[in-house]
Amino acid sequence: MENAAEHALALARNEYNRRLTLLEDTRQCLENTYKAAKNSDTDFFDVMSLSFYRASLSEKINSREKDLNTAGMIVDNRRQEAVQARRDRQILEKLKDKHRQIFLREENAKEQKQVDELASYMFYRRDV
Question: Contact, 103 vs 30, CB < 8 A?
Fold first, then answer.
């Protein structure tokens, strides 16, 4: 379960990074449109199409920011699941070790009882 949770966390982080890259690329495209407009003489229609393109990029940025926030929440959830799975594993290991120790003590007590019985049998046999 811990491995599955760690794998899910890694996938969620990869998705978050992918969405972050898309957002940064879109922001870079928007910035490039402002730089390109400053460097060239354009007519009215070019200005209008550039304005529409910028508006489209702004909407895309807003959408990708929402997607990034959603991916961030998923990463947080996966991280919490991975931490909980790790805790569960550690608890199970402690319980397993505790039961092992109890078993070993019981086995040692049984063995000691058998040794005591054998010793007392040998003692009585020597007397006879």
Answer: no
pTM of the model: 0.65
Say if residues 62 and 96 touch (Cβ distance below 8 Å).
Answer: no
Q: Where are the domains of the chain?
A: 2-97
Count how many residues are written for the chain. 128
Which stretches of 8-111 are assigned E, i.e. beta strand?
none
Side-chain-facing half-sphere of 1: CA atoms under 13 Å:
11
Cα distance from N-terminal residue to C-terminal residue, the chain: 64
Task: Write a three-state SS string for 1-70.
Answer: CHHHHHHHHHHHHHHHHHHHHHHHHHHHHHHHHHHHHHHCCCCHHHHHHHHHHHHHHHHHHHHHHHHHHH
Cα 75 to its chain centre, rounded Å, is 7
pLDDT in tens, 36-95: 767 666 677 777 888 888 899 999 999 999 999 999 999 999 999 999 999 999 999 999
User: In the block, which residue shows the tokens 């402002």?
Assistant: 34
